[in-house]
Write a structure and sequence with these properties.
By secondary structure, the chain is α/β, with parallel strands linked by helices. It contains twelve helices and seven strands. The longest helix is centred in the N-terminal third of the chain and has 15 residues. It starts with a helix and ends in a 13-residue tail after the last helix.
C-alpha cells in the first residue's frame, strides 16, 4: 500500500492544499470474466484495502470486467453460464463495496448472454439511482463513437433509457489515439444522435447517461490532459460536454462528465502516471475548475 500510495496519491489529493481528490470515480481494471465465473474472485490487485484507499476520500470505486484482452473469455463465460456469471459478479461487488463495469469489446457480442448477465446481476443488486448502494452501480463501455462496437450500442441503448434505467450509464471509450477537440466532440455526437441509417439502427443516448474519455499519457510522455489543464482537451471541449443538447434520447443538456485513460499504467507501451508524471496539474486543476462533486451525486438527470 505504501508503493500504491506513492504512485497514485494524486488521485486522492489534487495538490492545491484542499486535500480533495482529483476525481470522484476510479475504475479498477481488469477482472477476467472466466475467473469471476469459475473462481468467484477478483485479481490480486483488487482488494478491500485498495477500495478503502479511495472510498475513505469519497471516491466511488468500480471494477471493470473484461477489456480487449479478455474478449474471448467474455464469449466463453456468456456461452457457459451467463446467469451464474451475473450472480457471482453481483456478490463480489457487494463483498467489496464496488460497482461493476461491463467492458465487452466484441463487434458481434452475445447479447442474449449479456441480457441474462444483467438480469442476474440486478436480481442481487437492484437499480439504485441514488448511489447509496455502491454494488448497484452497473455500467457499460461503448466505442468512442457508434462506428466501433455498434452492436453493443444497439443492445445497451434501451437499457440506458428512462428515469430508472437497467444500466446506470455508459462510458464512451478512448479512440485509437488522442483526438482533437472537434474529433472528440464528433465521436460523442454519434452517441447523442444515434445512427438511424444503420441496420439495425442505433438509438440515440441521453447526454446525461454517458461519459467521454480522454488519454492522459502517450507512449513517451504525459500530455496536457495530465499536466497542463490550460491547453487540455478537458478545457477545449468543456462547453460541449456541459451544454450539448439531447437529440432523441433524454431531456436534459450536458454529458455526465469525463473519464481518463488511465492512471497508473495506461498500457504496457505508454508511460505511467507515477511521479513525477502525476496529473495534479491537468486532471487535478480540472477538478477544482469545475468543482466536481465529491462524492459522486445521485444520477438524477435524464
Amino acid at each position: 500500500m505504501t508503493d500504491f500510495d506513492t504512485n497514485n496519491n494524486w488521485l486522492i489529493n489534487r495538490g492545491d492544499g484542499s486535500g480533495l481528490p482529483s476525481v470522484n470515480l476510479v475504475v479498477l481494471a481488469f477482472a477476467d470474466p472466466l475467473v469471476v465465473l469459475n473462481n468467484d474472485s477478483f485479481p490480486v490487485g483488487i482488494t478491500p484495502a485498495i477500495v478503502q484507499y479511495f472510498t475513505s476520500k469519497g471516491v466511488r470505486v468500480m471494477v471493470s470486467i473484461g477489456g480487449i484482452t479478455y474478449t474471448s473469455n467474455w464469449d466463453s463465460a456468456l456461452a457457459s453460464n451467463p446467469t451464474q456469471l451475473g450472480i457471482n459478479a453481483a456478490n463480489l461487488a457487494k463483498s467489496l463495496g464496488v460497482g461493476v463495469e461491463i467492458d465487452y469489446e466484441n463487434g458481434t457480442p452475445n447479447t442474449a448472454g449479456l441480457t441474462a448477465f444483467v438480469n442476474a446481476y440486478r436480481s442481487v443488486n437492484p437499480v439504485d439511482m441514488t448511489g447509496a448502494n455502491p454494488a448497484a452501480r452497473l455500467t457499460v463501455d461503448l466505442g468512442a463513437g457508434d462506428r466501433y462496437l455498434g452492436a453493443m450500442a444497439t443492445w445497451a441503448a434501451p437499457l440506458l433509457s428512462g428515469t430508472t434505467p437497467t444500466l446506470d450509464y455508459a462510458n464512451a471509450m478512448v479512440p485509437s489515439k488522442q483526438p482533437s477537440a472537434s474529433a472528440a466532440e464528433a465521436n460523442w455526437s454519434e452517441h447523442i444522435n444515434g445512427e438511424p441509417q444503420y441496420a439495425p439502427p442505433i438509438p440515440p443516448l441521453a447526454p446525461a447517461r454517458f461519459t467521454g474519455s480522454l488519454y492522459i499519457t502517450d507512449s513517451t510522455k504525459p500530455i496536457p490532459e495530465c499536466i497542463s489543464f490550460g491547453t487540455s482537451l478537458e478545457l477545449s471541449t468543456d462547453t460541449f460536454v456541459q451544454t450539448v443538447a439531447p437529440n432523441g434520447g433524454g431531456t436534459t443538456p450536458g454529458m455526465l462528465g469525463y473519464m481518463f485513460w488511465a492512471a497508473e499504467a495506461p498500457s504496457s507501451r505508454n508511460v505511467t502516471t507515477d511521479p513525477p508524471n502525476a496529473c495534479t496539474s491537468g486532471v487535478g486543476v480540472g477538478a477544482k475548475t469545475y468543482d466536481i462533486p465529491i462524492p459522486m451525486p445521485a444520477l438524477t438527470r435524464y
